[in-house]
Amino acid sequence: MSSVATSQQAPPRPLRVVAPKLALLDSLASRADVFSDTTGVPVSFDLLSFGAFSLRRQSLLLDRSPPNVTHGYDVMIVTPTAYGDAAQVPGKLLDISRLVSGDPSLLDILPAFRAATMYSGGVMAIPLVPAPFLLFYRLDIFQRDNLTVPQTWEQFADLAERYHNGPDGLVGNCNIPVGGTCRGESVFLRALLTSYIQTEGPSHGFLWDPETMQTLVTSEAGETALKMFRRLTAVGPTWSHSPECVQNDFNMGRCFMGVGHPSQFKSGSFGAPGLTRARGKMGIAPHPGTTRVLDRTTLKLVPCDRTRCPLAEEVVMEDGASRLLNRPILLQSTMVMLNGLSPLAFQFYAFQLFALLASASVVGTGRGNGLLLEPNELLPMRLSDVSPDQLKYWVAKGYDPGDAERFLAVYRTTAIKEHIMPEVKIRMASNVTSALNTAAALYNSPATNATALPAILGRLEAALNGIVAAEGGQDAFAQQYRRSLNWVPKTGTGGAASVSPAPDSQHGASSAEVTVALAVAIPCVAADTKCLTLVVTDIYESTALWEKLPASVMDAAVSTHHAVIRQALLVHGGVESATEGDSFIISLKAPVAAAAFCLDVQQP
C-alpha cells in the first residue's frame, strides 16, 4: 500500500462555449458561474450576433485543430444541420450516448427530442430548445362562427381562403416570413413534402428513399405539396419581414391562422400592446397533416392505411367519418454539441456543465422559478413541464390562463409523438435549402404558369442529383444520407427501422472489449470542507485473464495498469488510499476530478 499526496491542478484555460446571441444564453451564462465556483472550471461564453455566427459556424465545424484558449470551441450551440459539416472531421462529433444514458437529469427529456440529436445511431448532442411547430388560430372567430379546427392541409387552405381579407380584416394564413433576405420558404415546403412522403418515422426520408436512393420529389406528392404551397402563400402576408425575418403577424392581430414556432405563445403573451393582440384569443392545435400519402413504387398518392401509415392517428373528419391522418411533426431543435477534439477533461467538463444547465431545475418550470417561464426562447422538454399541475406557475408568471391551458394541453399531446420531421443533416444541407427555396419561389411567382410545375420539380430533382454527384456518387452519398437519418435496413415487419435513443446498444466498445472498469465516483456532502470523492478501480475479468494468459504477460499488463493509474493520479491530484491485488481505492477532491480521472485512465 502506498499513497501520493499532491494538489489538484486547475484547468489550463476556460471552457469555451460559442453560440448565437440568445436571451436564454445570457441567463444560462449566469448559472454557469455556479458550476465554476463549485468545480473551479472557468467558462467563457462567446455569444455572437446571428450574422457573425452564421459566417463563422462552418469554419469552426470544419476546423481540424483542437481548441485552445483563443481558438475553436469546446461547446457550440447549433441546430442539427451542423452534423453534416462536423462529421467530415474525424473525431469532431462526440458520441455522448453512454453519458446521457447514465445521467438522470437528461433521461426525462422526451424521446422525440433526444432522437432529434442523433446521428449515425448515436446521441451527439444535448437538447436545449426543441420546437415542435403548432397551428395557431383565432379562437374568438372559430367560436363565433362555429368552425372546426382543420386536420388536413386541404381543410386548412379552404378555411384560409374563405377568411382571407374578409370582414374581420385578417390575412388568411401566416406561415413564413416574407422578404428577399428571409428565405423561409424551404421550411414550409419541407413540412408539406414530409407530410405527403414520410410515413414511417424520421428514418423514412422525404427527399430520397434511404433504401433505394430514389429521389421522391418528382411525384404526385411533390406536385401536391407545391400546389398547396402556392395556395397558402396566396392568402398570406404581402408586406416584408426583412431584415429581422421574424413572423409575429399572428400575435400582432393580423392573421386568422398560421403554422408557426411554438415560441409564438410566449412572445404573444408579453411585450408591447401591438405584439400581444392575440393574447387571450389564441387557439392552439397540432399542425395539419394528410390522409393521402406517397406510394413509393407508383409515385402516386394513395389513402393512408395501417400498413402504409403505421404511425398515423385516427381523426374524425368534418363529414363525421374516421380516417387515418399522417401528421409528422415539424421539429426544429437547438442543441448543445461537444467537440470531440477537445482534451478529454474538457469534454467531461462540457458535458457536466450542460447536463446541469439542461436539467429540469434550471430550464424547467422549477416550481415557479425556472427559466422556462421567462420570456425567452426556452420551450418545454419534459412532460413534467407541461402537466396540468404546472398551469398555476404559468398563470402566476402572467400568462393568460386560457392560452396557457390550451398551450400546455396541445404541446403535451404533440411532444410525445415520435413521428417527427427531421432536419436535414447531410453535409450539403445548405444546398438542399437553396434548392427548396428556388423551387418554391419559382412556382409561387406570379409570372409562372401552373403548367410549369413538372419542369420546376425536374429542376429540383436535378439539384438533388447534383448533391449526390458532388458527394462522390450514389453509393458514397447513400452512406452519409443513411447516417443522417439513423436508418437501418427494413425489419421483417416491412417498416423502416429507426434507431431509438437507447445508446447502450450502439456506439462504443462492448463489455468484452473493456479492460479497465471503474466504479462511479461517490460525492460526499459539499458543505463539508473535508469532502472527498472515492473511486474504486478493477481490471475487467482479471481472474479469467490470469487463467488464459501466461503469467509473464499478465505481470507486464498489471505493471502497465498500475503505472497508468499512478500517472493519472499525479495529473488529477488524487491520493492512492489503498490497493488490493489489481484494484485501487483512490480519493480525489471533487466529483468532477474523479470522473475526469476515470475517463483519462480508460483511454487507449
From TrEMBL:
Residues in Guanylate cyclase domain copies: 533-591
InterPro entries the record matches: A/G_cyclase (IPR001054), Bact_solute-bd_prot1 (IPR050490), Nucleotide_cyclase (IPR029787), SBP (IPR006059)
GO BP, one annotated term: intracellular signal transduction
Domain of life per record: Eukaryota
Gene3D superfamilies per record: Nucleotide cyclase, Periplasmic binding protein-like II
Protein name, as recorded: Guanylate cyclase domain-containing protein
Organism: Chlamydomonas schloesseri
